[in-house]
Amino acid sequence: xxxxxxxxxxxxxxxxxxxxxxxxxxxxxxxxxxxxxxxxxxxxxxxxxxxxxxxxxxxxxxxxxxxxxxxxxxxxxxxxxxxxxxxxxxxxxxxxxxxxxxxxxxxxxxxxxxxxxxxxxxxxxxxxxxxxxxxxxxxxxxxxxxxxxxxxxxxxxxxxxxxxxxxxxxxxxxxxxxxxxxxxxxxxxxxxxxxxxxxxxxxxxxxxxxxxxxxxxxxxxxxxxxxxxxxxxxxxxxxxxxxxxxxxxxxxxxxxxxxxxxxxxxxxxxxxxxxxxxxxxxxxxxxxxxxxxxxxxxxxxxxxxxxxx
Amino acid sequence: xxxxxxxxxxxxxxxxxxxxxxxxxxxxxxxxxxxxxxxxxxxxxxxxxxxxxxxxxxxxxxxxxxxxxxxxxxxxxxxxxxxxxxxxxxxxxxxxxxxxxxxxxxxxxxxxxxxxxxxxxxxxxxxxxxxxxxxxxxxxxxxxxxxxxxxxxxxxxxxxxxxxxxxxxxxxxxxxxxxxxxxxxxxxxxxxxxxxxxxxxxxxxxxxxxxxxxxxxxxxxxxxxxxxxxxxxxxxxxxxxxxxxxxxxxxxxxxxxxxxxxxxxxxxxxxxxxxxxxxxxxxxxxxxxxxxxxxxxxxxxxxxxxxxxxxxxxxxxxxxxxxxxxxxxxxxxxxxxxxxxxxxxxxxxxxxxxxxxxxxxxxxxxxxxxxxxxxxxxxxxxxxxxxxxxxxxxxxxxxxxxxxxxxxxxxxxxxxxxxxxxxxxxxxxxxxxxxxxxxxxxxxxxxxxxxxxxxxxxxxxxxxxxxxxxxxxxxxxxxxxxxxxxxxxx
Lengths: 309, 490
What we know:
- The structure holds two protein chains of two kinds.
- Chain A is mainly alpha-helical.
- Among the domains of chain A are: 94-175 and 267-288, Cytochrome c-like domain (Cytochrome Bc1 Complex, Chain D, domain 2, Orthogonal Bundle), CATH 1.10.760.10; 188-261, Cytochrome c-like domain (Cytochrome Bc1 Complex, Chain D, domain 2), CATH 1.10.760.10.
- Chain A contains ten helices and three strands, in the order E-E-E-H-H-H-H-H-H-H-H-H-H.
- Chain A has helices at residues 37-56, 75-99, 109-126, 128-131, 155-164, 188-201, 209-221, 223-226, 252-261, 276-288, and strands spanning 12-13, 18-25, 28-31.
- Chain A has a three-stranded antiparallel β-sheet with strand order 1-2-3, with no helix packed on it.
- In chain A, strand 2 (18-25) and strand 3 (28-31) form a beta hairpin.
- In chain A, helix 3 (109-126) packs across helix 10, helix 6 packs across helix 7 (209-221) and helix 6 (188-201) packs across helix 9 (252-261).
- Chain A is elongated and about 130 Å long.
- Chain B has helices spanning 2-5, 28-46, 85-105, 108-113, 115-131, 134-142, 147-172, 178-187, 192-212, 214-220, 223-230, 242-245, 252-258, 270-274, 294-305, 318-325, 333-337, 340-362, 484-488; strands at residues 63-66, 71-74, 77-79, 237-240, 313-316, 366-372, 379-380, 386-396, 402-409, 415-418, 429-434, 438-448, 455-464, 471-479.
- In chain B, strand 7 (379-380) and strand 8 (386-396) form a beta hairpin.
- Chain B contains 19 helices and 14 strands.
- Chain B is of the alpha+beta class.
- The N and C termini of chain B lie far apart (101 Å).
- In chain B, helix 5 (115-131) packs across helix 9 and helix 7 packs across helix 9.
- Classes of the chains: A mainly alpha, B alpha+beta.
- At the A-B interface, loops of A face strand 7 of B.
């Protein structure tokens, strides 16, 4: 160890003119080069800042949660505030949408536009699970882009379907249609014949003896709902069998299955889950996808718009 | 060897600024600088206040960078963001223009037109007006701080500050309607960014023009380096003709009495005294020389007084310097300026300029862009047709509302409609009203028979329905489902 002489004060390294600290190891000694003043001050400032920060904001982890901090700030609280601010900003237009009967929306382009965009967002949350992100549906789940509607494609009708659902057993106002299963009612040959007839009226196969036989069976068993010409009927939700759109499939195998076992697709009702404005917005969005139909000519004086739940 | 192994360590790498007190001077180049200063400052301050009538749908400010609405107006030209290549073209022209000017007349930009030079010059005039000329300034600087000095300093700095605020203040008027913004600015209701911009520019002008001055050119600015690299032996630079000036004499009479042979330079140091960057041009070309040519004026005046021809310090190329040194006569300046290098630069510069002018003249002010909906790609319709959806953007870049026809060609038996209309057979053209100077988004439905190519190309055309019938078209694809089901169906 190099011992600094006690009387001559600190030793100084000659080439650099810096004092020694007094630490030495294997002949290498440490010089006393202090940190720059500005650096040190910045460092102290960060310490003071840190103390202030831990007092003001949540910082120290405790057993169940961190210390609260005297400002009471939390990131959850900030998020809630921002969401609330957004909702407050949207509130007037949402209120206006809720207050407007849906068939009058198209006359107010700004509201209609807002409704469509709001519906686009709500669709992504509530509807894509079955109808798909592009609303193109899949087997058993209708494509909402096309121009074929089981129950009707004007704004008001779409809204009713949304609000009350389809085949909800616990709800009286729900859309209800019941195709019977024909297994055991019709013979195998009859089923084959009626399927052939349906494929004929939808333009998928030419007429033959089989289709003529099927036409008779159709008239006896199916025409009640699907109509004598097979064009269906919206009052029963009976699909049009002559067009190019099939919910489950128009090939022989699928049609045979449909006739034998029937189809009982269910859509949940949204009236008790979503608020009126959101349902209106969803209807506007679905209507905008390309298949939306014009509202029926206004029947004068229809004040009974507001349906009881 | 000693010095190689132990190079002298400078005490500090920071060189303290040596204050420069340029002396007032008069002469041809000084007057040229006055003229250029007036012209450039006038352009800068007056431009935002010029009006240009564009009708009711566009602002009437001649030069306006409307960031909020993403438009750039310059007299009859309006540029949209997607036409930013015109600005890129202007920047390329500025770059080549710099090459051209530098190879022809050296660092003329630095010496005359650069804002740093112009504002420094302005600040120095203010300084001379308040503090007096070079010697008075030197004395005042050395004098201890007293009431008189403080008063002068505060007065000088206040005037600088006013100029600086004027500079920053003028800048913001390029970005908003000048008269409106001026009112708002004074009333305190202008946007925060206006005040902060003025604040920042006031600070930079005050500091750069008042205190940093030539240090900006020597240490901060990259252009002197680039320009130095651009200079060649045929570029005009400010040259001290040492073959004529050396050896220097201190007082003519004295040297004549002694009978020594002397050059024309009498070492009066006027060239150093007037130099705004504080260099001695007699040491040869150097980075500190911004070629403002004030030393030429100063030297010419002295040469006149002692009865010698002007031009001991003068614009001269390195080539001419060699010729003159050998006793020849220099080329006419025009021949120096018009040489292949400058002509090539000029041709390039002009070609880009003409190309842009042509493009500006020929551009259509109607633009179409079409995006095919991908989810779903196609929709089966009940009557067997297939529908594809497209999101169409029609850009009307004219300052008036226009009616535009959207026309589908070459897709057999197609029919088109929009969300607010219903489908009817064989409609191939619909009209859209596009507001002035804006983009109209249209959702277009196109239906065509299921039979056909799986991916069929067709054209959507946008055609203005008023006067100028030009438009724009876009090639798009109509997609159909795969055709297996047809084969299945017997």
